[in-house]
Amino acid sequence: MKEKSVGTFLKKYTMIIVLVIVALFFTWQTQGRLIYPQNINNLISQNAYVFILATGMLLCILTGGNIDLSVGSVVCFVGAVGATLMVKKGMNMILCIIIMLAVGLAIGIWQGFWIAYRRIPPFIVTLAGMLMFRGLSNIVLQGYTVAPMPQNYLNLFNSYIIDFFHGENFNITSLVVGIVAAVIFVLLQFRQRMQRVKKGYEVGSITNDIIKCALISLVMIVLMWRLGMYKGIPNILLWILVIVIIYGYVTSKTTIGRHFYAVGGNEKAAKLSGINTNRVYFIAYANMGLLAAVAAMVTIARLNSANPTAGDSYEMDAIGSCFIGGASAYGGSGTIPGVIVGATLMGVINLGMSIMGIDANWQKVVKGLVLLGAVIFDVESKKNSR
User: Which of 79, 131, 222, 342 could bridge to 296 as Cys pair (CB 3.0-4.6 Å)?
Assistant: First the structure.
């Protein structure tokens, strides 16, 4: 029984264990430079778009292993529109943000219509979108880079939360937030466990839950401690947390969230049970367009510009993060926390290899092998379970 419990624990948290091992490996190989406060900050800011896009990509993958190949081009196009309006036209920042979100949502609705209601394969629709919106980006930008972005816009994404405790060489607020977040996480986990016990549901080993809570709480506190040694909590982390919390709740606690899993598990059965499968597909791709717009806002703020090559290969990073994080290649399986783990793993690999000075081409080889390994693991696991 104990062996079974350990096996279940290892299988459930495989990617977290891999993430820890990879992080320790690169920390060793870089003589600790990977976990310098500034590098941890860079890990968050440089991979913010991955966390955002991967969250939306998960919903597409849940519907049956479908993907959206156009998100990188959509990020570039929406960023080009926003930067042109703000920098060249001098338009109000808030109005520009609303227009960017509207453009992203309109693109998602356009692609969602063909996929959901005309049943054109997602691969074809989004491949066409990848070509179209990359071309439109160049038309809007006329082949040039638009820069710099207004300072008040940059402050939304590139600044840091002020230290309410006024620490001299350390951001005390960052550490306090980490401790409070860890306490809240532990309380929520054990509240959820108690509710499951009360309702008579099966629960895992209490030892496993204690270990999980202790490790995750430790990571939270250490992360905030390291950020406090640099400039504190970056604003972009709050944007990521808001998106992750919202979509984590939607996928795990709402009816529409359960519909995504049902459609991916067996679309015909879902349709027979009364689920509007067309609407599920439509929502997945409309939402992907909206989150691509958010990623565009983040990207042009980080680069302080919009250029014709922005968003290149973003779709690959988002798709890879989902599959590495445990999303099934067949659909119907995957979680937001898993996607975050996958995105973090990709970010650690990128940052670690960059610090080590490994050639960018070899970095792509390693990322490709990691992605292939994750999908092979998923496929073989399902074969063994059958």
Answer: 79
